[in-house]
């Protein structure tokens, strides 16, 4: 064991119709999800959508109202949290404040492998078996610490560690159990941006090495896309879409998902407005959006700022919307140009930042967008009649 | 002008506060004769001091009283914490039926002075033939509503995620109490220990009720008995020596652990 | 039935199990005997006598008719009426002074807190020696300045006031501590704001900032002090035995005498019920007033 990584037998996870209620509020509403052995799946969703509740239900920490959970094909309904073979890294890390890092990491082993007698101070020296168990635990703590490069910290209390170090100790406490399933609840949320990027890479590398099935909760879509095999997008206690990062980015099933993956801006224009202003046909014929004809189309059309461009004059064969420049926001290499469409709605166009000077306020132009990259969605309830506008997704 | 007045008042108040301490110490160091000499403070003498303290320790079983006091306080404190800590944890973190009722009961219990249940408790203890025993001195106080309340208030703010982590790591609920909560709650433990020890070391009422035999007396009761026994009539020095000895442990402990004690009383007061 | 609910059930059971010893003992050692007092107060039970019979409210009638008990209640009220205001106002003044002294404040706090930890029985004996009619320090000083010596503890017109003085001595330190804690929570910028408005020191500053900010602490201190003063027992039991001639009888001492000297359990129980009424009433008043304050303030 020493010097080598933990490798664990990875297990599948199947969740069916999981429902969990807090009073009248449904935190989980018939959630179903299958995760393959060794797979890394992110649960992505806005704050309060039930991500933590889902993880806690899998671990057995939350009382569920209905549904089943199977780990490695075995139902874990009726099993206590400690017996489910899952490891949990909490958003706050939940380290034991009065124990050293070594004791924190050793805690799960001490509880499962030492009897109540063995945990008493001094008494364990009397028995050879207890002494060997203790030695073996100490060895495994050392190996885990080496793997996570936290050996120098082992003697310290959590209060004396930085956020990143705490995060790794929490990871160590989860790793050492060699669990069938890893549950990580926003383990990177408390780290600064630079450390976050580095840690997420490390985390994914570690997961590949040990091959453990992992559920990873986050509300950051770039993070989810960067490290996941698949992403499950959650809103309001329901899983809306499951797919690879690419599938979800290219083909979001609902407007809400599209917005979530087009932060900070997504242009949403009612199909009717589009018809009124977009002008003539394309060079190839009728205007088609997402494979369907614009003629007779209902709902809204959404496209990303990076799929849009702006020109000074309309070109025949290239349909576009007349617009007036409002203002530009510098964003480093690129810039976001806010324009007003003919009906007074705003839209956002991605331009190169050196072009800002070409588009002073009040300048007239024509907005084009990549018709193949645009998607049609049903109009969100209550928004059908309101004018389209670029929305900020918080 | 106002400042000077303030200082004068402060110093005067401090002097009056210290007066009985100084006088008690001075008389305990003085020979019989010099006390009546008409001087403000009698002159100290080492020989007289030795005689006074020896009298208090041998003729009066003061050492026995102090041992009784220490035993009662120690056993009480251990039992009070052992019983109250799990209850405080349950009230703070576990959703059991009857939790609001129990918490309400604890609040009501905080308002009941010990002299109210004392009469039936005395009748029961006498009926069981337990008068003049340590059991009689200890049993009525093993349950402390204040301890439950303090622990509960302290545990409520303990992060629930750490408790969840412990459950995943295989801690039992009792293990969570003793391995996680109590070690983290040592300020509450210290606060409660302060209050409990001060109360029970100094209590006179209950020992007067259940104790009559000299060898079962606690320090204040023993001193009160010594004072009124007539033996002390001619021996004020020994009486004061006794007073010094039973007061010293808590006063010295207070001087050593001042910060914890002051905070403890602050916490207890808020309860 | 799913797994998590099973675990929740286990947690509920654990809660019940962990709370059970405390709940049981609370019922057995506190609530049962406290209600027992209520029952006993309606009987003519005397300890050592066989049997007892219901006599309704007769004990309460006896209590109110008994001159000794009436005097005892009166003494308690007078004692509380002296000790509570004096110890509270004095403590408030001392606390404000201590706050202003800076580094020496710690020293004074320590001095004033000493009586709280000290064994009252021992300190009462010490006071007795200090106040001794012939050789006590105070009388020596009185004689030296040409005044009459006083029998502080055996003169019926003085004894209660002497006990009240010792009571103040004991209570002030505790109250100072609470006030100092309260003062330390007043934000410094409030004082600065008041200084800009012209209340920069002395009385105006106290009236504008300190007193209003300290009101909740004062309420709490008042209730605690009242409870502790009506519960005075030690000094009476050690120094005066309620004498001379009942001049220092107070409710707890009378209760103790009736119950454990005369074994008149019925009468003593009625007294205990009254005592509980006074103490619990003060506590409830505290909660109600505090609640109202925090809702409106
Ligand atoms: N113990 C609880 N009691 C009542 N409601 C709760 C409880 N825990 C969570 N909720 C509610 O359930 C919903 C989902 O909560 P959950 O913690 O799972 O959100 P989340 O997706 O993890 O959010 P975040 O990203 O902010 O952590 C929220 O509306 C929350 O208010
Ligand atoms: Mg969460």
From TrEMBL, chain A:
GO molecular function, one term: ATP hydrolysis activity
Keyword Transmembrane helix: no
Record keyword ATP-binding present: yes
InterPro entries: AAA+_ATPase, ABC_transporter-like_ATP-bd, ABC_transporter-like_CS, ABC_transpr_MalK/UgpC-like, Mo/tungstate-bd_C_term_dom, P-loop_NTPase, Transp-assoc_OB_typ2
Gene Ontology annotations for the cellular component aspect, listed alphabetically: ATP-binding cassette (ABC) transporter complex, substrate-binding subunit-containing
Segments forming domain ABC transporter: 13-261
Transmembrane segments: none
Pfam family, one: ABC_tran
Superkingdom of origin organism: Bacteria
PANTHER family with a match to the protein in the record: ABC TRANSPORTER ATP-BINDING PROTEIN (PTHR43875:SF14), MALTODEXTRIN IMPORT ATP-BINDING PROTEIN MSMX (PTHR43875)
Family designation: Belongs to the ABC transporter superfamily.
Name assigned to this protein: Multiple sugar transport system ATP-binding protein
UniProt source species: Palleronia aestuarii
UniProtKB/TrEMBL annotation, chain B:
Ranges of residues in domain ABC transmembrane type-1: 66-257
Main subcellular localisation: membrane
Transmembrane intervals: 65-89, 101-128, 134-155, 176-198, 236-257
Membrane topology according to the record: Multi-pass membrane protein
InterPro entries: MetI-like, MetI-like_sf
Location in or out of the cell: Cell membrane
Gene Ontology biological process terms from the UniProt entry: transmembrane transport
Family the entry assigns: Belongs to the binding-protein-dependent transport system permease family.
Name listed for the protein in its UniProt record: Multiple sugar transport system permease protein
The species this protein was found in: Palleronia aestuarii
TrEMBL record, chain C:
PROSITE patterns on file: ABC_TM1
Localization (cell): Cell membrane
Protein's membrane topology: Multi-pass membrane protein
Entry superkingdom: Bacteria
Keywords: Cell membrane, Membrane, Sugar transport, Transmembrane, Transmembrane helix, Transport
Domain called ABC transmembrane type-1: residue spans: 73-286
GO cellular component terms attached to this protein's record: plasma membrane
GO biological process, one term: transmembrane transport
Stretches that traverse the bilayer: 77-98, 110-130, 158-186, 206-227, 265-290
One Pfam family it belongs to: BPD_transp_1
Protein name: Multiple sugar transport system permease protein
